[in-house]
Amino acid sequence: MAEPLLLIPGFMADARMFLPQVAALSAGRTIQVASLGEGDTIEDMAGEVLASAPPFFALAGHWIGGLVAMEILRRAPERVSRIAFLDVLTLTETPNAAAEREPRIAMARAGRLAEALEQEIPAAALAPGAGRADLQSRLREMAESLGPEAFARQSRALMRRPNQQKTLSNAMVQALVLCGAHDTLCPVRRHEFLAALMPRATLCVVEGAGHVPTLEQPEAVTNALRGWLSTPYLLRRTTRF
After folding, report:
1. Which residues of 64-92 are buried (b: 16+ CB within 10 A; e: fewer)?
2. Which of 121, 133, 191, 228 qualifies as a cystine partner to 176, CB 3.0-4.6 A?
3. Full-model pTM
4. 85 and 50, same structural domain?
């Protein structure tokens, strides 16, 4: 049997973020969806994920989950068979962006979690079209399940996220760098930089998707993940679905 696949959801998301991919890829492969736990730093979150992870696994993470995946790769590279980053940034947060998180944290703690989430992931970061409102509703449902303290913890982890460029430039595992073409939070040009940084990375830009391509264009994301999982090594290239 193929190595297990460990998925790490994005900001204020849970296993529902990857539901289409789990359904499509679980035949013949164990799939585990991690929780970011109670930590308020990327390092603490990575430690919690590693504690319950298989001994050896393929690893994929979305946004904050991708940052946790980078830290896992830095900390335990011998356990990671291959890695995929979905809609993520590599650089540390700017002081201005970090300061802008504080009002959203206060808003979430004051009972306005849905409003804070909409500011964190605005409609403009999602692909335009009839499905945008439904996707926003699904994101709110996941966030409400996690609650305002998880919003605060994950926000603070993003504020203090480490720069992992050295880890990524030294990584020799086969990598997939995937993003939605309409993502304004983690734009395509940042993924081009990330893919160029890694020695064995494939860049996949998903048309018709924004910040949450796993739910906006699930079939395209599943196909990209399936190709990544089935190929030991790939030269870096750009594909569009």
Report:
1. bbbbbbbbbbbeeeebbbbbbbbbbbbeb
2. 228
3. 0.95
4. yes
